[in-house]
Design a protein that fits this description.
Length: 133
């Protein structure tokens, strides 16, 4: 019962029942990325938009930063060829895509942050408190 209610009402965790129904009826699967997100295109040109519709169904939380750059370009109509249809090889200096970790336990916490692990270092004497004159 809980899963059924989540499917109907929670758009931020995967897809709702309406999105899945519309995708099954009108969508064509184009590919899947390394995170498990599935990418679809509509059949033909949408008459109201004048171009084809493209969308993603996230594998988990709906987080836009979880879309790799190649798929992001395809979704935004920057490129016409989906990453699954091309033979692009990343350069040796290119790092693999990582989603934004802000707000998660894996977020970057610089030295001295209150949320960083360990002890905060004491003040070193280079700080001078401001006081009004």
């Amino acid at each position: 019962m809980k899963n059924l209610l989540l499917l109907i009402f929670t758009w931020w965790n995967g897809a709702t029942a309406g999105t899945l129904w519309t995708t099954r009826r009108y969508g064509t699967l184009v590919g899947e990325d390394e995170f498990g997100n599935r990418y679809y295109r509509g059949r033909g040109v949408d008459p109201t938009l004048g171009f084809e519709r493209r969308w993603v169904i996230y594998a988990g939380l709906a987080e836009g930063s979880a879309v790799p750059p190649g798929w992001k370009g395809w979704l935004n109509h920057t490129v016409d060829v989906a990453p699954t249809e091309e033979t692009y090889k990343p350069r040796e200096w290119q790092l693999p895509h990582e989603p934004n970790m802000t707000g998660t336990p894996h977020a970057y916490r610089p030295k001295g942050s209150l949320l960083a692990s360990g002890e905060r270092p004491p003040a070193t004497g280079d700080y001078e408190a401001w006081s009004p004159r």
